[in-house]
Write a sequence for this structure.
């Protein structure tokens, strides 16, 4: 699908990348079917992001300028979002910033509740932010950071060409699914156990028979 044919009102959100790469069905249930069910992890994660975004300040400490809650977008990729934090590190190889002396290199920082994951969904979301910033600021961004609440540590992420392609492909696929209103079929796995949408998705049943058929049998059994 041609991104140029998408209205900006239909741009995907950067935060959707994490859902999509974790589970395409979970993404569709949330963003196409508008279904959601909070669990402890999702609530705590929302609180962490609100704290980061609420402190909408620009702060200069030494050679690091910190901007919180920065809105970003990419017309090339058809995506918009908000960065938890963007650090601008003073560097002679950087870019000029309006109202600031010197040169600066952008470095996005994303806050995550919990610990680092085995998959690349967190790295991809951060890389999506970098791609937006590169397009907006006409620069190259090589690295960013993921800060995890449980470990209280940063994990440095390199924005390799492989990771960039994962982001581009995922956003293209997301836009296609959204335009079609398509919800992928379930692919049960270990991740289903802690998914906040487990009671809505019903992965064990989906694998064996349709939800509609299950509900019909269940209702008939109650009569």
């Amino acid at each position: 699908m041609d991104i140029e044919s998408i209205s900006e009102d239909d741009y995907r959100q950067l935060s959707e990348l994490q859902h999509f790469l974790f589970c395409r069905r979970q993404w569709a249930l949330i963003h196409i079917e508008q279904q959601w069910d909070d669990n402890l992890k999702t609530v705590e994660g929302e609180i962490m992001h609100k704290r980061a975004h609420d402190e909408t300040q620009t702060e200069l400490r030494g050679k690091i300028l910190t901007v919180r809650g920065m809105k970003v977008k990419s017309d090339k990729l058809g995506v918009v979002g908000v960065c938890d934090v963007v650090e601008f590190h003073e560097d002679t190889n950087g870019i000029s910033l309006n109202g600031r002396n010197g040169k600066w290199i952008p470095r996005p920082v994303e806050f995550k509740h919990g610990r680092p994951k085995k998959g690349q969904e967190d790295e991809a979301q951060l890389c999506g932010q970098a791609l937006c910033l590169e397009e907006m600021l006409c620069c190259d961004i090589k690295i960013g950071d993921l800060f995890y609440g449980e470990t209280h540590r940063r994990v440095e992420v390199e924005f390799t060409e492989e990771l960039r392609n994962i982001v581009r492909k995922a956003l293209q696929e997301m836009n296609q699914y959204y335009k079609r209103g398509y919800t992928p079929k379930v692919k049960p796995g270990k991740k289903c156990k802690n998914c906040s949408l487990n009671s809505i998705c019903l992965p064990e049943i989906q694998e064996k028979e349709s939800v509609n058929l299950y509900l019909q049998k269940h209702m008939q059994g109650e009569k």
